[in-house]
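Hi W., the zinc ion complex you wanted:
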Amino acid sequence: MSQREWIEKDFYKDLGVSSDASQEDIKKAYRKLARDLHPDANPGDAAAEERFKSVSEANAVLSDPAKRKEYDETRRMFASGGYGGGFQPSGGGFSGGSTTFDLGDLFGGGGAGDGGLGDLFGGLFNRGATPGGGANRSRPRRGGDIETETTLDFRDAVQGVTVPLRLTSPAPCTTCHGSGAEPGTSPRVCPQCNGSGIVSRNQGAFGFSEPCDECRGSGSIIDSPCRDCRGSGVQERTRTITVRVPPGIKDGSRIRLAGQGEAGLRGAPSGDLFVVVHVRPDRVFGRDGDNLTLVLPVSYGELVLGSTVSVPTLDGRVGLKIPAGTADGRVLRVRGRGVPKRGGGAGDLLVTVKVAIPQKLDEQATEALRDYLRAEEAGGFDPREGWAGA
Ligand code: ZN
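Structure:
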């Protein structure tokens, strides 16, 4: 895989781990995803297959500490805001051409900036679309993504719930509102790059763009940095976020909250927050896709003679009719009492009947049962008729 692909691909995001995750965390995340997304488990699901490929690709790099290091360094080199301008052919010969450049080759040794996974290609296209670049405001580096987790009760997960999440992460500085400049002052446009954060340099047939060293690629200069955040515009803060979990969420799902991640430096856009949802098992209900499942204890007599039994659903109890002659283990369906579906409706409640055998019978019941067995035999019923060649 080329360096260019490395720059375009966010392997950490593919595995749902932070960029400082331990090797052990990476291994765990990969195992879980590989299991969930494996083609055998998702026959005919092209999206899952695609994800499975990305996950495998990400793991191949991140699981190898040496490769991971190389990947990190490559990305660090290009992720700094200053390289957002990328490169462009200059002079007559190349305009309008479709020559492909390998960023790795062009910039291999020139890394600057201090980490973070910027929106490199977004920045490139953004700038490219605005001719005469000088007046462009630089796009500072987007904040990092955060991942956190929460555990829900089974019923909340099925019906949907709103949960408060407390998390501590870099947030916009309250003193300077993220600008990084002392209140009452404001950053000024960098005179060297006119705010673009990049300067052009000619070398042979190509015009290179590289981060402006005056403003370190940010496009602006802060003369009096904010004292509380020392000019970064960011400070660690604990905040509470309300997360609305949609009905029917499955154990292990990830919810993305755009813009709720780490604040970007000097007012740059925030990263995203990913919430991994775990679901506690329920004492009564289980789940099979959009259906809820439940095992209903019944007596032999109820199955033979038929009966109407009260069963719990997520909203109240319903009477379930057991037809006469129902076999033990049969699944009865209560329509529409399952998991709410996206776009309306709900799955079903699947009730498996299971005979409960009394462990102790009083004399009267024992006598009656003996009488019953005799009558059953006299009536010609043989439970093992046709069984095992009998
Ligand atoms: Zn500040």
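Residues 137-187+222-281 form a domain with the HSP40/DNAj peptide-binding domain fold (CATH 2.60.260.20).

W.
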